[in-house]
Design goal:
This protein is about 65% helix and about 5% strand. It is mainly α. It starts with 11 loop residues before the first strand and ends with a helix.
Length: about 100
């Protein structure tokens, strides 16, 4: 199962409404994801929050984990953290392999 989603935009400045519309989710879902630490928007309050394409990706993956696997918000946060660690380790391994081949 591919849990990754493409990053739509790297731009900063998506509002809470933009994120909800992009991911086809309710505002309450985003509020819960922020509360659980899955998302860390810029800004002090929901009306001022700004999101990036990376937030869109994280939201889509978290929603899919919840929908397809029944994972709660805390579980989605942990799964996203582990997926990011795997990506980091893969990149490090690839860099080491390229250095050895050079």
């Amino acid at each position: 199962m591919n849990l990754r989603a493409p990053i739509h935009e790297e731009e900063t400045g998506l509002t809470l409404a933009d994120l909800c519309q992009s991911c086809r989710i309710q505002t309450e879902v985003v509020l819960e994801l922020v509360e659980e630490g899955v998302l860390s928007p810029q800004g002090d309050a929901p009306a001022q929050w700004r999101f990036t394409g990376v937030h869109v990706q994280r939201t889509l993956v978290a929603v899919r984990l919840q929908r397809d696997l029944g994972v709660n918000h805390a579980g989605a946060a942990l799964a996203l953290q582990l997926l990011e660690e795997i990506d980091t380790l893969r990149a490090r391994l690839q860099a080491l392999e390229q250095r050895e081949q050079a």
